[in-house]
Amino acid sequence: MGVLENKFKDNVIVASMDKLLGWARSTSPWYFQFGLACCAIEMMASAASRHDLERIGMMPRSSPRQADVMIVAGTVTMKMALRVKKLYEQMAEPKYVISMGSCATSGGPYWQHGYHVLKGVDLVVPVDVYVPGCPPRPEALIEGLLKLQEKIQTERPLTRKSV
Amino acid sequence: MGVVKGDQMVLNIGPQHPSTHGVLRLEVMTDGEIVSQIRPHLGYLHRCFEKHSENVTYEQVIPFTDRCDYLASMNSNFGYVVAMEELMEIKIPERVEYIRVIMGELNRIASHLLALGVYGLDIGAFTPFLYMLRDRERILDIFEYTCGARLLYNYMWVGGVSHDLPKDFETICIDFLDYFEPQIKEYNNLLSYNKIFVERTADVGVIPADVAVSYGVTGPNLRASGVKWDVRKDEPYSIYEKFDFDVPTGTAEFGTLGDCYDRYWVRMLEIEESVKILRQALKEVPSGDVHQALPKKIRPPIGSVYRRTESPRGDLGYYIVSDGTPVPSRVKMRSPAFTALSCLDEVSRGWMISDVIAILGSLDIVLGEIDR
Amino acid sequence: MKIAEIKATIINQFPDSVLESEDLAESQLELKADQWFEIATFMKEDPNLSFDQLECITGIDLGVEASLQSRYNFHSMEHRHKVEILITHDRNEPKVASIETIWRIGDWFERETYDMFGIVYEGHRDLRRILCPDDWEGWPLRKDYEGQELYHGIVIPKMKEEDGWE
């Protein structure tokens, strides 16, 4: 895929190929369960029987090599930030990041005097969707995942994006 | 790091791993498959709770205590307000006491259900996890009906509670308990008498009673080793003296006293005891105003207090030092999971790597409480 | 045993180590740091005291120019009684004997107090930081703690008093 990206001028064949790729990539993203703190419990609850994540195709994978989406659920500390970066680099393209909860978005309730808290995971990895809440309800997380699916579908990986 | 001998292997069970106890790093030194030493590395979730509590007022500390032990948030609040009320010598209304006990015991059932479900998941059984989480969702519905939140409530305040019980609360709770009691039999059929589960947990990771006391292990882990110690009975707080309940201890049903199966079994029996307490409490909740004893401004006298309460993981203690201002001078949380994890090294020597996962799951740790 | 008898037993055995002070609560006893290991061994092994559970070690900073303190809470499973011991340290060189060989939980509690306050427990076999990373600078829970600027290239922003962030 890396050889073909950003290669072609915009025409009807490339546009339909882009749509096909968008559909294929978005409809069954396997998530990397990176639960750190309280938001991890709500992530587990959304994977359990009442709010089932598997019905939208998401399956939990424990290894970064097999995952498409990394859900950073919980507070990222300085000690952990280096490891988050390493795990992000181990994921294979195409990869996306969802920042779940207010701690991962901007430090959360620990923003003021937390000497050891990273104020937002977007300081170390690029984030696609932010899901606010402390902790966000499972329904909020599912909405975040559906928004991510919309975002993936509007990406056009094959088209050359020139100015 | 230490010196590695010639044929020793170091296995890193890293900060991100699928058994969902949180971010803990275990450096395991093994000789083939047999473990010779474990060094736990903590601090991956150190969120500076104690530094925050020196810069915000006494009431503002309560949401931070929620987030430390996030599975039993009502009990974390309970410990803090009991310590504060002892420091300030406030007398609270009966209705508030009953509501606190009801919420604390419901949260104890929810926390044990999650602990046991995840323990089954660690051993390899997926179905009990789904069943127990399904029933836990019903308890979270009750909490949401009362105070609006599913996981972190900020419910117990110094001198009262934040919301009164809503309409028909007693009926809803009793309906839930009537639905829930037969489910315990279903869990036993699925997991407790399952041959594979028994083989993996009986006789594994025995903690003798004197080692447990020296390592500061408390709660269900200590009771599974045969020591009958429960803060609700031995240093009673709130109105626990009015209720009639037993304190289950380990019985060595399938193996030795103090093994992983005993720790699992004590938690199962504690769920039944909590149901008993709830039934007694729901019958006799008195009427009254829950906000009557809330102080206008919390300014405790100069001094210090150390008070412990029984959380689902053990003895949760708060050491609070006050210097007369509305902001605490020092709040230290003595967390039961911290002491439970400290005995992992000694207990798992000589066992295999998969037994280490079984022992770690049976200790029921929550990293938010350990790292604070 | 009542708290007065517990205190009297310890004072009789080690009369030179006790410090009298007015603003102590009834269950607290302040000791000097020099004979702490012997006193702790006596508290565990004497059959009338038999304190077999160390509940908590709390480090306290009494003020920006004042001293540091370690407070130990003890409990006996057999006799069901408690006591609290206070030991004061000099701010520039805080140290006291370690009791981790007597109560095994002292190991991690003392590492935590060292990490947060810098109090050195002599005789501890492996005194290193437990919560903060190993290369963290400073003692976070002291009242005069100034955070570091950078950690491995990540900027740590500082709060200003009046208008928020720098």
Brief account:
The complex is a heterotrimer of chains A (about 160), B (about 375) and C (about 170). By secondary structure, chain A is an alpha/beta fold. Chain A is built from 5 helices and 5 strands.
Tags for this model:
A: 163 residues; alpha/beta; 5-stranded parallel β-sheet; 5 helices; globular; B: 372 residues; alpha+beta; Cytochrome-c3 Hydrogenase, chain B; 3-stranded antiparallel β-sheet; 48% helix
> pLDDT below 50 for ≥5 consecutive residues: which ranges of chain C?
none
Percent in strands of chain C? 25-35%
Intertermini distance of chain C? 57 Å
Helix/sheet category of chain C: alpha+beta
Shape of chain A: globular
Here the CATH topology of chain C equals Beta Polymerase, domain 2
Please state the structural category of chain A: alpha/beta
Write the layout of secondary structure elements.
The complex is a heterotrimer of chains A (163), B (372) and C (166).
Chain A: H1 12-26, E1 31-35, H2 38-47, E2 60-61, E3 69-73, H3 78-90, E4 96-100, H4 102-106, E5 129-131, H5 138-153
Parallel strand pairs in A: 1-2, 1-3, 3-4, 4-5
Chain B: E1 9-13, E2 25-31, E3 34-41, H1 49-53, H2 61-68, H3 73-88, H4 94-123, H5 127-147, E4 156-157, E5 160-161, H6 169-192, H7 195-201, H8 209-214, H9 220-224, H10 231-234, H11 260-283, E6 303-311, E7 314-322, E8 330-334, H12 336-342, H13 344-347, H14 353-363, H15 367-371
Helix pairs in contact in B: 2-3, 3-4, 4-5, 4-11, 4-14, 5-6, 6-11, 11-14
Chain C: H1 3-13, E1 18-19, E2 28-31, H2 36-45, E3 53-61, E4 68-75, E5 82-89, E6 95-97, H3 106-117, E7 120-122, E8 150-151, E9 154-155, E10 159-160, E11 164-165
Describe this structure in words.
The complex is a heterotrimer of chains A (163), B (372) and C (166). Chain A has 163 residues and is an alpha/beta fold. In chain A, 36% of the residues lie in helices and 12% in strands. Chain A has a five-stranded parallel β-sheet. In chain A, helix 1 packs antiparallel against helix 5 and helix 2 packs across helix 5. Chain A is globular. The two termini of chain A are 22 Å apart. With 372 residues, chain B is of the alpha+beta class. In chain B, the strands form three sheets. Chain B has a three-stranded antiparallel β-sheet with strand order 1-2-3. A three-stranded antiparallel β-sheet of chain B has the order 6-7-8. In chain B, helix 6 runs antiparallel to helix 11. The relative contact order of chain C is 0.13. At the B-C interface, helix 8, strand 6, strand 7, strand 8 and helix 12 of B face strand 3 and helix 3 of C.
